[in-house]
Predict the 3D structure of the following.
Amino acid sequence: MPDVDEMKEGKKYYTDVPQKTEGFFLKGSNSLDWGMKNRLARIFSSETGRTVMLAVDHGYFQGPTTGLERIDINILPLVPYADTLMLTRGILRSIVPPSTTKPIVLRVSGGTSILSELSNEEIAVDIEESIRLNVCAMAVQVFIGGEYEKQSIINMTKMVDIGNRYGIPTLAVTAVGTDMARDARYFRLATRICAELGAHYIKSYYIEDGFETVTASCPVPIVMAGGKKLPELDALTMAYNAIQQGASGVDMGRNIFQSESPVSMLQAVRAVVHNNETPQKALDLYNTLKNQESA
């Protein structure tokens, strides 16, 4: 038993200091439960409110695309420079070391390949897998305007419901069909639908005309999708413009792992996202690091 007499004078209650009740730093996320916020705070930096996600989940419908032929050789060296990894459970289990402390965003929708209708997806990973793998978010593709639009939306809402039950956020990934107009009106529609139906954050493409209206009208964070491979300066410029126009980060894949120097490119992207570095200065950083790498 503790000595009661020893405890009489040592207590301090700081009656003159009110307890602080701080709001959560991430847009639209203040009312979420503690576990959900904790996972989101691992994905997004509490200092900048932004994230640099490294997307390497392309193989779930494309197979071993260029740059992802060998995840162990091409991708693992990039992990220290990313804030978050977005991948599939197969790659996570077979290649990523369990000692990795980077937060994982797990691809949980699937069911079709590039040889068939991509929008015909269903939930392909059970919530127990997400819990078992200790992931920080679950990614579901949503095909607004696609042939299987309703099914993809229901996929997302199901994961939102069950993710809320266990404190795991859902990332809605907006997909654009080849015959759809990539304009602000479409992305305002797609991102808002996902947010209205409960997605905790959304991955969407950058557009030059009106992207700021997309981020402004979406009540949860938007992370810019990298899309197809671009010249390094163009990719850095796109990332810079997206951040300056309200994006809460970028999720890049091909513009990183298909770059001539992926490690250098990832660090340059980080400078843009977290330090507001200009595209030209970020390109200078990329070239400096690339030259050091080859020296």
Q: What stands out?
A: The longest strand covers residues 137-142. The chain has a mean pLDDT of 94.
